[in-house]
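Budget justification aside, the reviewers requested a transparent look at the raw inputs and outputs of the sequence design task funded under Objective 1. We therefore reproduce one unedited record. The lines immediately below are the structure tokens for a 178-residue chain.
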């Protein structure tokens, strides 16, 4: 399931009268010509959850309601924000500071670079078994496309290696000379 929604409208602009002679055209059959405009509206969705805190009048114990399991701390970022940041960093290869600035321009919140990198690390851990199986499948293919490009980070050269065949594409990064 994709985290998006499409709002689609259709407006029909009627032709009731001839713009040359003024004849009534309401009962005349017609054909249509369509023009389409596609736009993006960024929408920040903020969900607040407050739990009640009460003191028992009998034993004076303080009892607090339970937060949802996906809200373990005071602030979380939803799957849409995480996926957007992962796409910027891993797929589009946008620099951390640029990704941070872009996310800030959309949601008006500065997300720490370390937090953004945590999203990548969690995805990496979640995909570890898939990567092993994908590598095994790639090695069985008759033909494999291989490419590489360099990347400089803090005066150190790295190589991004791409291996693909069939519907599988793997990328990995190694330090130059390693």
């Amino acid at each position: 399931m994709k985290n998006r929604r499409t709002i689609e409208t259709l407006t029909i602009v009627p032709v009731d009268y001839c713009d040359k002679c003024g004849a009534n055209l309401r009962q005349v059959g017609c054909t249509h010509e369509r023009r389409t405009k596609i736009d993006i509206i960024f929408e920040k969705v903020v969900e607040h959850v407050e739990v009640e805190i009460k003191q028992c009048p009998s034993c004076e114990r303080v009892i607090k309601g339970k937060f949802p399991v996906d809200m373990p701390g005071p602030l979380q970022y939803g799957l849409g924000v995480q996926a957007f940041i992962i796409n910027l960093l891993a797929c589009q290869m946008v620099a951390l500071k640029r990704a941070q600035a872009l996310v800030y321009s959309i949601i008006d919140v500065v997300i720490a670079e370390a937090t953004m990198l945590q999203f990548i690390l969690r995805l990496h851990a979640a995909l570890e078994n898939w990567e092993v199986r994908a590598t095994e499948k790639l090695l069985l293919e008759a033909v494999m496309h291989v490419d590489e490009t360099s990347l400089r980070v803090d005066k150190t050269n790295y190589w991004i290696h791409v291996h693909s065949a069939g519907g599988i594409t793997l990328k990995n990064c190694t330090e130059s000379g390693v």
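The chain has a mean pLDDT of 92. The longest strand covers residues 156-165. Computational costs for records of this kind are itemized in the attached budget.
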